[in-house]
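Below is a typical protein record.
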Amino acid sequence: SQTDKLDFLFQALVKTSRLETGVIQLDKKPGRLFDTVAQAMSGIVYAAEKKEIVVSVDCPEDLTVFHDSKWTSEALFNLLDNAVKYTPAGGKIAVSVVLWEMYVEIKVADTGKGISESNQAAIFRRFYREEEVHEQQGVGIGLYLAREIVTRQGGYIKVVSEPGKGSEFSIMLPTK
């Protein structure tokens, strides 16, 4: 409903504003990444089931990383929410966690519509929405907020995508 959309927009704006103005301080401490991923996943299970999207997760249960679990979960949820929105019914979303030497990578790969190279830098701008996606609900703040959250923890988000071939978004968090 329109009320739900407005509420979602309002909540996203409040979170972004609090993060930007320093009202919210990220609290990085050692935590199991598995729990953070599970928290984010819980927010999209119903929507994915409704569209018959198969979601797989590959995350070591014992991997502990310095991160703000609540906010990292919020950032990951935003990536997953987009994956569900832009993946057609019957598609697939794969979440994988890989430990590299300096970073841990949380990757969300989907079989969605993909993003043209010319739009890939713009998608992280506040309120940016691709022309082609206006039939999907959204306000263009999710990726901006996700990037803010990850950047403030010393990490970054990267995207690999091709129109018609889906997208891969990776949250890269420092291991130290």
Notes: The longest helix spans residues 2-20. The beta strands are 29-32, 54-58, 64-67, 92-99, 103-110, 156-161, 167-174.
